[in-house]
Amino acid sequence: MAVLGAAGIVAVAALATAATVPTAQAAPVSVDPLARALGYNAFVENETVLASTESEGGIATGGNLVIAGSYNVNIHDASSFTAPGDTEPSALVVGGRIDFAQDPATSVVQVHDYVKVGDLNGARVLNEDANNASVNTHVVAAGTGYDSTPRIQLNMQQPISSVGPTSPIDFEAAFTELRANAADLYACDAHEVVMKDDQGATVPKGQVQQNQQIRIALKKGVTNILSVTGEDLNAMADLVFLDRPSTYTPLLINVDTSSTGDEFDWKVATQAGISGPQAPYILWNFNETARLRIASGDSVEGSILAPYADYSDISPTNVEGQIIARNASLGEVGENGGEIHHFPFQAELTCDDDVDPTANGSTDAPTTGDVTTLPSGDTTTGTGSSGPDGSNGSDGAHGSGGDGNLAATGGDMRAFIITAAVLVAVGAVALIAAARRRAGE
User: Fold this and answer.
1) Is the separation of the CB atoms in 100 and 66 below 8 Å?
2) Which residues form the Choice-of-anchor A domain (predicted)?
3) What distance separates the 2 farthest-apart alpha carbons in the chain?
């Protein structure tokens, strides 16, 4: 019986060991958080005011469009979304009506490609001028003529029936998803970027000093997250990029504006080391900000996700990316809002999903020899193989190390089950051997 007891203890111990090892991790989740914005330079849930100056790509607004100054839309013919039945992209989409009353004197909104208007009450669509000549489409206030102001002026002739009343975009569904994405990204578990001063000392979130230069290094091949407060952004003299964001090395900047009541006037620091070519791989996430104004400073490199915010821009510098907001004022009367350059967000951000609740409270991902499939289909391991963007595997996607790397899909329980089975078999063999010895005594 002593041998039987020992075998039983071995088997039970093996099974207990297997039971305490973390079970399979849930798969990391990759998402293009701005996909529902359809590539528009400005994608707004409700009202948009156009005052100054231009957008290289298209503008889509779910509510009314207020003409408060002269503005150019899709000036680089960058819009790509084409409404069903149309032959040209929808460069300007208005879910509501057009408000011509703000500046009745001189304002002209020039649009390259088509315009779509959900409510044509108070508006008139004309493809003929005062001489009954066939001309490019103008949208003017009801009761006024072809060249009256304010007006929307197309660079081509659009069929009148195509203008409206119709909106090809479901803004409510889009913003439900955009808000969910913003919240998920604010809680994203990925590689945390550390702020450092010009002497190499770490600067924690919320502790950037006035006129301090901040430097950041990115880990290649993974999603990088920089967490800052609004005060941090306004205190920085420069934000220096030691590495450039790219398709496989995107940067998510989560901005906390809670200490100012979720209202923020942004004095944009110079983003040294990057420019327009890197902008498609940078996302500024103002998840819960209710009012966001670009007040002064340098250009914003990257897209702005502020789905709850009343957004305005009175800085003559540029935004190089997309703007997602609840309401938007692009410039103000007498204030130059700068340009919106067409650098739409073009990366997928990857965050760890929830860990299996049966995993004994462990949130650590496997860190040895994990293999992760990148969006291109390339694979890179934690052993130092060459990664995307020419990166070294030691810095590569999901390599070894406990620094918040994204988990590879699924730890494997099979090895532990096999180990337990082998130990049980060893116990059984011991029992048989013992029985034979006793039979021969």
Assistant:
1) no
2) 33-342
3) 123
| CA proximity to 65, closest of 114, 16, 22, 118 | 118
421 lies in a domain?
A: no
- The domain tally of the chain equals 2
- pTM metric for this prediction: 0.77
Are 132 and 203 members of one domain?
no
Per cent of the chain over pLDDT 90 is: 71
Q: How far apart are CA 91 and CA 427, in angstroms?
A: 75
Distance CA 42, CA 288 (A): 19
- Is the Cβ–Cβ distance between 236 and 208 less than 8 Å? yes
* Within-domain flag for 65: yes
Residues 77, 108, single domain; the answer is yes
Q: How far apart are CA 14 and CA 230, in angstroms?
A: 52
pLDDT in tens, 41-63: 999 999 999 999 999 999 999 99
Alpha-carbon 187 to chain mean position: 13
Q: Which of 21, 7, 12, 25 is nearest to 416 (CA)?
A: 21
Q: What is the DSSP string of 310-324?
A: EEEE--SS-EES-EE
Torsion angle in degrees (nearest 10) through CA of 152, 343, 312, 75: -20
**Directed axis angle between helix 2-20 and helix 414-440, to 10°?**
180
Tokens standing for 57? 């790509």
Structural domain contains residue 73: yes
Residue pair 80/39 in contact by the 8 Å Cβ criterion: yes
Cis status of the peptide bond prior to 388, with omega within 30 of 0: no
Those residues with Cβ within 8 angstroms of residue 440's Cβ, 6 or more apart along the chain or in another chain: none
Residue 104's pLDDT is what? 67
